[in-house]
Sequence to fold (241 residues):
Amino acid sequence: MIRRPPRSTLSSSSAASDVYKRQELEHARALLESARSQTGGAWKFRGRMVDQPHVKAANKLVSLYVPEEKPTPIEPGTKANLLEAGSSGKWLEELEAGQVIAHNIRRTVTETDNILFTTATMNPAALHLDYQAAEQSQFHRPLVNSMFTLALTIGISVKDLTQGTGIAQLAVKEARFLAPVFYGDTLRVESRVLSKRESKSQKDRGVVEFEHRAYNQLDTLVCVAVRAMMMARRHAQPSRL
Fold:
């Protein structure tokens, strides 16, 4: 024979359950309300860090307890908002053919830069690594790896052009090295928009072709690079990031 618990015990248990549900529901609604003001990524809510999975869980809980209540759109942490929150680059609509950007970042090239880059990319060229061999060359000293120069030329442009706004690099169409780079040289970069076209199949993006020109401290042009970038529109919801 199964003995039922006293009626007072059942009432107490049910009341405690109702209080717990109300607390859960209040917490979930408060989290969703907090989420509406966020622009992306994680944020602090009631002493703990929360992000998109917490928003999903809160929506699920509210739907469970109050089926007729519409869920809050899950905007924090979406790919588009994450792009915008961390962007310092230019959006597709901010770029036009002929536009020139002079980048404020400058970089002095060091011996460590050259050795680490050259060995990391498995390049055994004596001109970059062997001081005695380099002394016998026409430069009479080690030459900075031109691929490092190319990477630095493009890298200096990222903060102003493609940080948080570039979806993908499609091609490096041209790379010319017009003067050698040595240890101690300080490079600056200017970029120019060569062309821009909107995507016909995906309205949230387009393709921009940039020309990057690197100069040393003597204003000698050392590198010219042309690359094609897939760029996002502002406030768009990129479908494949």
